[in-house]
Amino acid sequence: MTRRLWAVFLAALVVVAGGGLFALSAAGVFSRTQPTADPPPTPTPTPQPSKPVQPSSPALPHSPTPTTRPSNPARSHPTPRYVFPVGGCRADASQSHHDYPASDIFAKVGCLFVAPVNGRVDEVTRVDTWDPKTNRGPDRGGLSVSIVGVDGVRYYGSHLSAIAPGIRPGVIVRAGQTLAHTGKTGSARVTPPHLHFGISWPTKPNMWWIRRGAVAPQQFLNSWHHGGQLSPVSTVAKTHRTYGADNGCRSYC
């Protein structure tokens, strides 16, 4: 009896225990999985510094191609400045001249003969070949210098005592620049010292009968002596047209 009770008791205990285990298993007590390790974090790339964005330049309006303006003739060829041709001492210009247009400007030996206007040296005579026995026209001036001014007029001075250094044909000179010194060469050996001054148009070399003077210079000399600026350009041009063809010396040859 006792054994049978114990057997029934044990069987019941086994049944109860098995049911409990079944119930726990059904409740998921034994089926819970172990937590897995989190995956390693993906490294975040280090941001690279971005290049500064250059601001776009605003569109500029189209500039027209500059046009070349014609030069101003007044600037390219300024009005000539005239000065009296004798400097450094008193000088008196004659108001007439024998046989052909010119002026004798009386001044002592050694005064300055200066360029009356900007220009270029034309002809220079450095040797006095005048002989009173022959009194040849080409020789009467003695030492002389002529220039062609920027105004296109030729200016001539003779009876000089010395030519200034560096004065030779082709040299550019300025108004007031010393060309030579007054004297008594040529036919002035037998007269008071003076500068023979002549105005003419440019010619070929050695045309002494034009070079010595073709236009009366008195009104221009009188103007320049008092600071005036009377120009001989128009008078010289008119006289040149009236003179006509040049066939050689016409008076006091």
Oligomer: single chain
Structural class: alpha+beta
Mean pLDDT: 81
| Tally of contiguous helical segments | 5
H/E element order? HHEEEEEEEEEEHHH
Percent of sequence in beta strands: 15-25%
Helix content: 10-25%
**N-end to C-end Cα span:** 195 Å
Largest sheet: 10 strands, antiparallel
The unreliable regions are: 12-41, 49-76
Shape: globular
Q: What is the CA-based Rg, rounded?
A: 59 Å
Total strand segments: 10
Task: Summarize the structure in words.
The protein is an alpha+beta fold and 253 residues long. It contains 5 helices and 10 strands; from the N terminus they run ααββββββββββααα. The protein has helices at 2-26, 73-76, 208-211, 218-225, 233-243, and strands at residues 86-87, 92-93, 103-106, 112-114, 119-125, 143-149, 154-163, 172-173, 178-182, 194-200. Strands 1, 2, 3, 4, 5, 6, 7, 8, 9 and 10 form a 10-stranded antiparallel beta sheet that branches. A hairpin with a 4-residue loop joins β6 and β7 (154-163). The longest helix is centred in the N-terminal third of the chain and has 25 residues, at 2-26. The chain starts with a helix and ends in a 10-residue tail after the last helix.
